[in-house]
Amino acid sequence: MDAPQTGPVADSLDRRIISALQIDGRASWHRVAAALGEAERTVVRRGTRLLDSGLVRIGAMPLHGRSTVVGVRCAPGQARMVASALTRRTDCVFTHVLTGSPDCVAELLCPRDQLASLVMDELPGLPGMVETFTLPVLRHIRTIREWHSGLLTDEEIAALAGPPEAPAASSGDVMPPGDAAQDLSRQDRLLLNALAEDGRCTYEELGRVAGVSEATARRRLGALRREGRVRIRAVIEPALLGLPVEAVLRVRTAPADAEAVAAALVDNVHVRYASFVTGEHQILVLAALPSESALYDFVTRAPWLRGVASVDTSLVLSSLKRGGMLARRPRD
After folding, report:
1. Which of 61, 94, 165, 216 is the 20 to 30 A CA-CA neighbour of 247?
2. Residue 177 contacts by C-beta under 8 Å, 6 or more apart in sequence?
3. How many of the other CB atoms lie within 10 Å of CB of 197?
């Protein structure tokens, strides 16, 4: 029997369902129930409630360029305005307002041949901006799409990770060459636009939107996912999984130690995102932890610190965008 509901996320089963949707946001309730060993009726009811609450959203983000992280130091009192301007960009993946400097950080998908225009023309026009730091991502170590909070066993993850249309699991994000938007057909763009609004659209709905058959919609989406042209993910606040303290870390290592540090970071369940970037600090990390004392241990005692020369830590004060979707309060 279900435990009494005490809020939008009632208990560990709710959190396990959320974790399952992080593995595959389009997994059927039947497959989620089978993987978790729970009654399908219970999973349907709880999963539907979580989606209806707005706390868990399934979105798709087309990849229209290479990742570039932008940090901005703002004039006093202008951090929210600057972060909002970054958030409104259609190529923005995430935006966080931080303690310390920079005051906010965002990831943008910018084709490399447009990077000069971004740095010299677009970023200097941000209202309230004092200084910007542009850090092109050289290689992803882990992206939010690949992160889960450690609530599922390896067997449960394997049962969820194998839909025919999904890209195979990898140690880094699947990234298309060049600007993937240039050779997308009109039907593909319509499919992706529909998925951006609701990543769990049925194939029948996708086909109707794109003007193709259900079978064609299934085939085209499968190809887009395998080629790494779209990410489909559950977009959540980590606090839902008992991880309310978020931090952005800039990590500097000796060049010879960078790969070992990266491998150790991937082994840590609290690392939601990590990438090799240009600049003084080679690795950028987004982490989520249960408390500030856990964050202290993470940046002073964790095994991944072997080979680390310095760590610059900022707390996340506010998130305006995650996974290409605007932050949203739960619906009543």
Report:
1. 61
2. none
3. 12
**Residue 87 corresponds to which tokens in the numbers above?**
């958030």
CA neighbor of 118 nearest in space, from 61, 67, 174, 83 = 67
Dist CA 270 CA 238 (whole Å): 10
pTM of the model: 0.84
Whether a cis peptide bond, with omega within 30° of 0, leads into 102 is yes
Using CB atoms within 10 A of its CB, is residue 329 exposed (0-12), middle (13-18) or buried (19+)? Answer: exposed
Helices within 235-303 (DSSP H only): 258-266, 292-300
Q: How far apart are CA 82 and CA 132, in angstroms?
A: 11
**How confident is the model over 83-116, as pLDDT tens digits?**
999 999 989 999 999 999 999 999 999 999 999 9
Tell how far CA 300 is from the center of its chain. 26
DSSP 275: E
Half-sphere exposure of 297 (CA within 13 A, CB side): 9
